[in-house]
Amino acid sequence: MEQVKCECGHVNPYGTAFCESCGKPIEETTKPLLDMRYEGSARRSQTYNKTIIDKIWNFFSSVKVGVWLIVITLIASAIGTIFPQEMYLPPNVTPAQYYEDQYGWAGKLYYELGFNNLYGSWWYMLLLASIGVSLVICSLDRVIPLYRALNNQGVVRHETFLRRQRLFSITNVNDERLFETVKERLAKRRYHIREENGNILAEKGRFSRWGPYVNHIGLIIFLIGAMLRFVPGMYVDKVLWIREGETKEIPGTNGKYFLKNEKFIFETYEKGKENEVFNAAIDRVGSGMVAKTYQTNAVLYKRVGPVIPGDEPKLQKVKEYKIRVNDPLKYDHYALYQVDFKLNELSKMSFQLIDKKTGTSFGTVTVDLRNPTSSYNLGKGYRVELLSYFPDFYFDNDGNPATKTKIPNNPAFVFKMYAPDKPKGEVSFVAIRQTIEPFGNNKYKMAFAGIETRNVSALTVRRDFTLWILGVGGTIFMIGVIQGMYWNHRRIWLKQVNGEVWLAAHTNKNWFGLKNEIKSIIEGTGLAMPVDQAEMKKKAAQGGNEHGATQ
Amino acid sequence: MMKKQRLVVRTVILLLLLSAVGYTIYSSIFAEKTDIKVGATAPDFVLTDLNGKTHRLSDYRGKGVFLNFWGTWCKPCEKEMPYINRQYAVYKKQGVEVLAVNVGEPKLSVQKFVDRFGLTFPVVIDREDQVMNAYEINPLPTTFLIDKDGKIKQIITGTMTEEMVKQYMESIKP
Asked: Where do the Thioredoxin domain residues begin and end (chain B) (predicted)?
């Protein structure tokens, strides 16, 4: 690739718009102002386009492509929220059927186009990954030439460069001390001053130019953190439903830890029991309407010995903890958060065997709803057998009693009652508020006698080794944003040409601030205030003069 | 010279990015995030069947194991149980064992179900959800085909036809 030698002697890479050192345009342009983006450096992507690698590189190097990728991702993400995602559907439904039944043809289309599992779909992941690739390549392709150009910039600039700056003025002065005064004032304003043959380059805030790239590095670190979540062991996010009195394995711990739920406590703010300052608020919403506490009194156990699922575990107590909202039990990088609850789940149900006519009771049967026994002997020849049990009863499509789940939400039973005068037994179907006698009129009846309930607590099991990476990425991102936002890269050039002083200035943002700064620097020196050539042109186009007034 | 260097640098960077992206997509979609995947050793477990006999998976080394997770409320499970039962009768002699793991229902319900379909293979109950956690069971039914070396050969979620059951059992014959 041929390189381009400028008349000032500097050798520029191919594709450079104007000389890195003196700023003379490589190719003559008729435009009155220079495009100062990327310092006129040769963005590599724009110049080479040979192999397939170069073509891929150039595709991702385009900011336009990057923006489109982001827009497409945003639109797709939005579409994913129109109907519920598959993971949030009720259990035991067929997704294909469900979407069509619930949302009609739109739902069917939604499912067929794969939006039902959007955020985990390969093409969505591919979009996100492309954004990451675009970030890396865009940054690399710009930051290296930019660094090069800013590093190689010369103090002595070509006249065409200065003339084509947005802020430019020529003054006829002959004052030896002029430059000294200006330099002093520039230094006071923290400009770095370089001097060569009576030319001045004053520059400050160059590090602001690196802001976007620092920001991108932060984003890339953030993406790496998100990627690490897929590495086994780096990230655990599970839910544990646990009833009072139960000891269960904590999912996601590979059978290493167990938890016992001693008690689940749900409290509300009640009138008369609270501090007086709450009274007004309690009156407004009603007593017992506002939750005060969700708490699980838990005991954490560690399994000792080999872990064989299903085997009766040998447990060693680790610690007790009262888990409350935002106050998790933490151990071994695991955290258990209070996340949900269910009050008063049925645990036991009692019935009395009675004579329907006389109402005489022959004893009570208590059925454990989690694991009922099948036979209950009441003595004196009275006996009850549980033939069938439906924890979550409904009639299926064939009209047979069946259960929806294994959770006792709506228990139903088929009892067979034996009595001395009914040695063959009578069958009775008992559900809540409902008794069916399938074989005609029974003499005996299982009369409802009471329930026992217990609370169920839901805890989120979380272990996240990627959080600090996300934190570091986020912090670097923010530093980059601040760096680019709150500092400006300002440069002022002064050149002596045949007894004239040429003054030009450039900033990457906040031209108003730069103009004010120049005003105070040249005050009283006799230098002419630079004219904003971009604004002048705009005003001229609108038919006004350079001060903006229309004639 | 410069050109060559540029090509090398670009290729290396693109390959790095591609592998990072590839790994992420592969591991999030095509690979399980855990040890439960085809080719891995099936986690050992111990469960008790309805007759009080304990079954330990590792004791079945040398035989193919057709490991089926099911619930009595699950209609597809109900549909495929008779198929499994019939094919078990054929493949038992050829060294294929069936272990049906119920997902922690009352013994009463499980026993009734077993009696209704006359199931002849061992049915064990995972009362504490420990085996379900270890195998990360989500939808029911889920079937694991485990070969004679204790490796997971295939994971099937959803209903099977009798022909499928037959083919699957054939595939894990020792």
From this structure: 36-174
The reply to whether B36 falls in a domain is: no
**Sheet (strand B96-102) strand order:** B123-125, B96-102, B64-70, B142-146, B152-157
Beta-strand relationship, A490-497 and A531-532: unpaired
Number of folded domains in chain B?
Answer: 2
Distances (CA, A) of B27 to A232, A466, B125: 9, 16, 32
Q: Do A403 and B109 touch (CB under 8 A)?
A: yes
The verdict on B115 and B154 lying in the same domain is yes
Half-sphere exposure of A70 (CA within 13 A, CB side): 9
Q: Which of A212, A56, A65, A64 is nearest to A127 (CA)?
A: A65
Residue type, A270: E
Q: What are phi and psi of A409, to 5 degrees?
A: -85, -35
Read off the pLDDT of residues A381-398 as tens digits, 9 standing for 90 and up: 899 999 999 999 988 888
A406 in the same domain as A281: no
For A221, the domain range is: 210-231+470-485
Q: Say yes or no to pLDDT of A23 above 50.
A: yes
Structure confidence at residue A476 (pLDDT): 97
Q: Which domain holds residue B154?
A: 46-171
Phi and psi, residue A38, nearest 5°: 55, 25
Amino acid letter for position A148: R
- Bin A9: left if φ > 0, else alpha if -120 < ψ < 50, else beta: left
Q: Mind telling me how many Å the CA of A355 is from chain B's nearest CA? A: 27
**Could you give the C-alpha distances from A414 to A108, A426, A446, in angstroms and in order?**
41, 10, 10
How much is the average pLDDT of A224-232? 81
Are A195 and A225 in the same domain? no
From chain B, the residues in CB contact with A370 under 8 A are 106
Q: What is the pLDDT of residue A296?
A: 96
Tokens of A11: 């050798």
**Closest C-alpha to A525, from A184, A164, A203, A190:** A184
Report ipTM for this prediction.
0.80
CATH for B58? 3.40.30.10
Residues of A in contact with B17 (CB under 8 A): 132-133, 136-137
B73:A311 CB<8 A: no
Q: Give domain status of residue A33, yes or no.
A: no
Residue A352 and residue A334 in one domain: no
- CB distance from A361 to chain B under 8 Å? no
pTM: 0.73
Question: Which of the given ranges, A269-283, A335-349, A533-547, has the highest pLDDT on average?
Answer: A335-349
Cβ–Cβ gap B7/A392 under 8 Å: no
Strands A247-249 and A257-268: antiparallel
The answer on pLDDT for A549 being more than 50 is: no
Interface test with B, best of A48, A53, A133, A243 (most B CBs within 10 A): A53
> Domain check: are A65 and A118 in the same one?
yes
Same domain for A330 and A262, yes or no, is yes
